[in-house]
Write a structure and sequence with these properties.
This protein is mainly alpha-helical and 209 residues long. It has 8 helices and 6 strands; from the N terminus they run αββαααββαββααα. It has 2 domains: 6-152, Jann2411-like domain (Jann2411-like fold); 165-206. Helix 3 (54-73) packs across helix 4 (82-95). The longest helix has 20 residues, at 54-73. Bound molecules: zinc ion.
Length: 209
């Protein structure tokens, strides 16, 4: 995977959370409770003895997909479906996020809830900090429908549309080319579509670490 996709600081945790599902490869690290437990522990969001219920798992996956919907909206301009923000709001509520002050004149948002609710709340406090810092609109989901991989747009003018220009970007360009020429050369369309399918394997291996 290209380093250029990485988000700065803790925002990378949110990007990795969204990418627990690899849509194109059909893989999901949150496919079961054990998968969610492992991911949370590996990323320092929960203790090894955290209890994960099936409700926790469902809510984690729902939050992930709501975040993906928001990241897709960052990549095209149209607003995210209303339900996405309701999902974030509900997760923040369950996490009982509160403003905490300390004697070093600092204030931060923290989850009062423990367990999975608290861990998901921690991700949302990172989102809030990113919004405050102005970096949030740069975290996007790839515009290719069968990809939707989360990436951080490092371009100067925030114009990045694909997780990987060399793969998803070229694929979209090739499709646009085929569509432009489909009217005049209808027979070429099938050949082109077949060619792009062969590219799928290369994509999967290229974007991984
Ligand atoms: Zn992509």
């Amino acid at each position: 995977m290209s380093k250029q996709q990485h988000a700065p600081g803790e925002l990378e945790l949110v990007r990795e959370f969204v990418n627990t599902a690899d849509i194109e490869a059909g893989e999901d690290r949150l496919a079961d409770r054990a998968g969610l437990t492992t991911w949370l522990v590996e990323h320092g969001l929960a203790a090894a003895d955290v209890r994960v219920s099936s409700g926790d798992l469902r809510r984690a996956v729902d939050l992930r997909e709501a975040l993906r919907a928001v990241l897709l909206s960052h990549n095209g301009g149209e607003p995210a479906p209303g339900g996405a923000y309701e999902e974030l709001d509900a997760a923040a509520c369950r996490a009982r996020i509160r403003l905490r002050f300390n004697d070093r004149l600092e204030a931060s948002l923290e989850s009062e809830a423990g367990g999975v609710d608290g861990a998901l709340g921690r991700l949302l406090t990172i989102v809030q900090a990113s919004i405050a810092q102005g970096t949030w609109p740069r975290l996007k989901a790839c515009r290719e429908h069968n990809c939707e991989w989360a990436f951080y747009d490092h371009t100067k003018n925030r114009s990045g549309a694909w997780c990987n220009m060399g793969v998803c970007g070229n694929r979209a360009k090739a499709r646009a080319y085929r569509e432009r020429h489909a009217g005049a050369h209808g027979s070429e369309r099938h050949v082109g579509a077949h060619g792009s399918e062969r590219h799928v394997g290369a994509h999967g291996s290229e974007r991984r670490r």
